[in-house]
Amino acid sequence: MFSKAFIHSIKDRLVGRFVEAEDFSITYRKGEDETVMLNISYTYKEDIFFRFKSTSTLEFDITYSPGEVYETEQYSNIDEVSALLKEIKTWIGNVDKEIQSSPEMRRAEENKRHIDEITNKLSSYQDETEFTNSEVEELKNKLDQLEKSLIEKIQNDIEKEGDFNSEISSLKRDISKLKLQSEHLTKKNWLLLFGTKTYMWTQKHPKLATLLGTTAYNYLPDDIKERMPTEFVQVLLPKLNQTDPEN
């Protein structure tokens, strides 16, 4: 079986940014074909593991999850202990990345679910025409007003100047995109883009969600608001208070 020094070497490598050796359990057993199987398992999530089979000639076949590219990766005929220990360290790096990205993945999945819901609720909106030149100009003017109003509201919600500048730059990019796409998209598809952007604004500033959503809605041209399906408005702005925006 494995020496205490070897097991200690493994434990030394089970340390990352978000994990430490105590978060893992190590078990091993001898196989019928003179091989030894070792399993490193993460206590809190069973699909995070590192396993290897060792022969009497100290060759290792390894399987671990998560991998760098795939959920599970396998490598055979590793013939040096140092190379095996390096693979364990690489795996720990993957575990750190997985833990760090999990909240972001959940947010991305939630955003996709909500955007799909917005798309479904907009299905009854039948206007597949494009904006006329005069409608484009009106929409751009409204978007300029919206940008100014949202900047004021976001500024009151953000204390750090650096964060404020970053958020405002992002907002201006979104507004510019909405302006540009008004010249190319159908009214229905532009409205979908607008709904998506509005949702993302409210996610960035949850304390201002209702205020930002209401402001964005009320700066739309009346013709668009009148034809928006009620279901679309409700899912986009569930707490919508349709009041006139402040000037």
Sequence-ordered SSE layout with sheet pairings:
Layout: H1 4-12, E1 24-30, E2 36-42, E3 49-54, E4 60-65, E5 73-78, H2 81-121, H3 133-157, H4 161-181, H5 187-204, H6 209-218, H7 222-227, H8 230-236
Helix pairs in contact: 2-5, 2-8, 3-4, 3-6, 4-5, 5-6
Strand order of the largest sheet: 1-2-3-4-5
| Beta-strand share of residues | 5-15%
Largest sheet: 5 strands, antiparallel
The number of helices is 8
**DSSP strand tally:** 5
Keywords: Coiled coil
Coiled coil: 108-188
Q: Which descriptors apply to this entry?
A:
2 domains, 8 helices, about 250 residues, coiled coil, 5-stranded antiparallel sheet
Describe the structure in your own words.
It is a single chain. By secondary structure, this protein is α+β, with helices and mostly antiparallel strands. It has 2 domains: 95 residues, no CATH class; 115 residues, no CATH class. The protein is built from 8 helices and 5 strands; from the N terminus they run αβββββααααααα. α4 runs antiparallel to α5. The relative contact order is 0.09.
Quick structural overview:
Helices cover 55% and strands 13% of the residues. It has 247 residues and is α+β, with helices and mostly antiparallel strands. Residues 240-247 have low confidence and may be disordered.
